[in-house]
Fold this sequence. Notes:
With 302 residues, the chain is of the alpha+beta class. Helices cover 33% and strands 29% of the residues. Mean pLDDT is 89; it is low at 1-6.
Amino acid sequence: MVSSPLNPLDPLIYRTAGDSDLRILQSELHPNAWRRLAAWMDLSCTRSSWITLNLRRGALVQALVLLTHSSYGIPLECVLLPAHATQGPIDCQLFRLAIDCAKRCGARELYYSAEEDSSQSRCIDDLGFSRWREVYCYESDGSSTFTVVGYRTAEAGRFPQAEIVSLIEQTSEFCDDSQTRYFQSSLGSYGDAKLTLETMELASHEASWWLVALAPDGQKVGLILPVLNYGELTIGFIGVLPAFRGRGVASHLLKQFLPTANRSGYSTVYAEVDEGNKSMQRTVSKNGFRLAGRKQEWRLTI
């Protein structure tokens, strides 16, 4: 017997996910989407009360998940999870309910991203989100053959926190990252650097991942701060002093980190680079990262 398709005129039912809805999500989400959701729940990046979904005649249409870093506790981002079949335009009412949930949880801002060719833009704009930035999404197989002579690295934990904040501030000077420039203009360069470190510290990471690059004379000239971003090992921050850019310092940091990532059990490392940051795009590309896609990010002030 062949089942008939759902009638689009049937009313939609909206609700927050409960235990029974998790079973529906497991059976009706695309398998990759369910694996991501299950991992997020295991890592305490979300909870069932942060999942909003709509159903038509008992079948899942769309699901929207609020995410946070496990130690932060307040929603930071919303992610739309695809069901088995393509469901057409996103449901603005679903987003409104999720935004209301984020407000109740104390969120002051919320981020959303979608593939660059997405047809979701109009709805997202109408909901009050502002276009934030476009990013290039890279994946690495965890290896680098690039060689840089004369520099060495030390774990960032060997240095006082104030020195790390100062290094982030110095390496962020004249950068081409639009997010960094935004926070530098609103918080000042020191405030941006302090917020960057605090945000990185909230995400799970191992001490051996955070490295400072040292010049032959011992001067701190760069650093890399990889973190687990919703379970995926991601380059959270990488920066080099302006006077030392173009000398391969960022490549040196990546070359030193990637074997450590492999030893930690991660075969793939991810990096998101601002569209305007051409130098970092070149750096990751020559260190074994491949371009996996592009996406538009939006930001909502609640």
